[in-house]
Amino acid sequence: MSDAFQCNIVNTEGALFSGMVTRAIIPGIEGEIGVVAGHSPLLTRLKSGVVRLRLAESEDKRLEDTIFFVAGGFVEVVPNCTTILADKAQRADHIDEAAAQAAKQHAQQLLAHHHQDLDYARALAQLAEAMARLQAVSELRRKLQRG
Amino acid sequence: MAVGKEIKQKIGSIKNTQKITSAMEMVAASKMRKAQDRMAASRPYAEKIRAVVSHMANATSEYRHAYLQEREVKRVGYIVVTSDRGLCGGLNTNLLRSLIKDMQKFHNDKVEVDICAIGQKGVSFFGNFGGNVVAAKTQLGDAPDASELIGAVKVMLDAFDNGEIDRLYLAGNDFVNTMTQKPTVRQLLPLEAEEDEVLKGHWDYIYEPDAQQLLSDMLVRYIESQVYQAVVENTACEMAARMLAMKAATDNAGDIIKELNMLYNKARQAAITQEISEIVGGAAAV
After folding, report:
1. Cα B196 to the chain's mean position, in Å?
2. What pLDDT digit, counting tens, does each position of A90-143 carry?
3. Could you give phi then psi for residue B170, rounded to 5 degrees?
4. Do A80 and A3 form a contact (C-beta atoms < 8 A)?
5. Is B146 on the interface with A (CB under 8 A)?
6. Backbone angles phi, psi at A99, to 5 degrees
């Protein structure tokens, strides 16, 4: 298949995904990027969010995506290969929803009750991360309900 | 009968040593398995980022980052990864020996050498041997944390940024398999572009946001990940080397015990023979 390209997702704790995909949607720092085969070379940072991959060998005619959560890191797109170097990444079906919910509430509380010694940027990052996890879970759920 | 009392004592003490070395062997074996898992887990990231960075070195960008430019070499930096503890055979000695050979070449060319030592053995070696140690990090433990290394690595990167060093090398042991660990010295900075057929010719990335910041972040991350990988790999090497060294020590203790037992039995027999001949001699005299 000529419209498929190699895609790798790695984080510091191992390789999450490596295989052929026909489309990848990646949360870049300046907005979501849709990558298809033949994309121009691109180098950018990741922000917290959801990566959606459409697998090449999937027989799924409903065109469902495989969903990953990522937070921080880099994306490199070169012809025929897209590499996501994430600081944190997880498959959507491996996410602990309750823990993500708790992390979100904790971060929100920190932000709501302003302390002087609050590390504002860090709390925001934590909130964004928890939100991204929850988003990944909810997308996965929608997908399962449809299917 | 006090025959061979000293020998008996000696056997006892060697048996105790043997117990210790065989326990250390087993501990090292189980730690090695964990260290190997850790090494395997972080390897994909290190490999992928290396691939990305080598693509980057091939790109014909308007903006050339300092890390990609060759400079005249007046002073070089080494990040030396050794173990914290000894009793692991020739692991550290082999690494340091091959490193010294390397440094000697620079010394002959009147190039000075700065050292960033990670691991207690390297720190004390360069303390005795004499070397300009500008940064050190020890007591990383069996499960090193990447954040603990950042400080020591930053010293070297800052030195490179400020033009104090013109090249940066990374020295550590490569884990080939349980039996073999290979001391290696790799050049980290400036980056060497690898030949790549697919990426030949003029091309460049689209950078988001701007190239300068992105490239420096990426390259710093790359160096950190390479150093972290070297540390994790060195830990696995240390455990494997210790396991082998302790196995050899246990076997040697067994051999010595066997020899001493033989000696003890001979002495005992000689004493009995002598006693009998004394009795027989005495009886004949009566």
Report:
1. 32
2. 888 888 888 888 999 988 888 887 777 777 888 888 888 888 999 888 888 888
3. -125, 125
4. no
5. yes
6. -65, -40
Mean pLDDT of B217-242: 92
0.90 cut: is pTM over it? no
Give the pLDDT band (50/70/90) at residue A61: low
Which residues are registered as beta bridge partners of A28?
A31, A46
Whether cis (ω within 30° of 0) applies to the bond prior to A79 is no
Confidence at residue B148, expressed as pLDDT on a 0 to 100 scale: 87
Q: Using the Cα atoms of residue A21, residue A22, residue A26 and residue A28 in order, give the sign of their dihedral.
A: positive
Number of H helices, E strands in chain A: 2, 7
Token readout for B141 is 């433990």
B48 vs A: CB within 8 A: yes
Judge whether B65 and B219 are in contact, CB under 8 Å. Answer: yes
> Cβ of A19 under 8 Å from any chain B Cβ?
no
Nearest residue to B125 via CA among B142, B100, B153, B150: B100
- Give CA–CA dist A69/B48, Å, rounded: 19
Residue A147 is predicted with a pLDDT of 64
Please give the full DSSP string across B148-176, using - where no structure is assigned: HHHHHHHHHHHHHHTTS-SEEEEEEEEE-
Asked if the ipTM is above 0.90, the reply is no
Please give the pLDDT value at position B37. 92
Kindly report the backbone phi and psi dihedral angles of residue A19, in degrees, each rounded to the nearest multiple of 5, phi listed first. 175, 180
Query: What's chain B's average pLDDT?
Result: 89
Assign B220 to helix, strand or coil: helix
Please tell me the distance in Å from A79's CA to the nearest CA on chain B.
9
Residues of B in contact with A42 (CB under 8 A): 205-208
Distance, CA of B90 to CA of B253 (rounded, Å)? 19
Residue A34 CB coordination number (10 Å): 10
| Beta strand ranges found along chain B (DSSP E) | 75-81, 112-118, 132-137, 167-175, 181-189, 206-208
Is residue B116 among the annotated active site residues? Answer: no
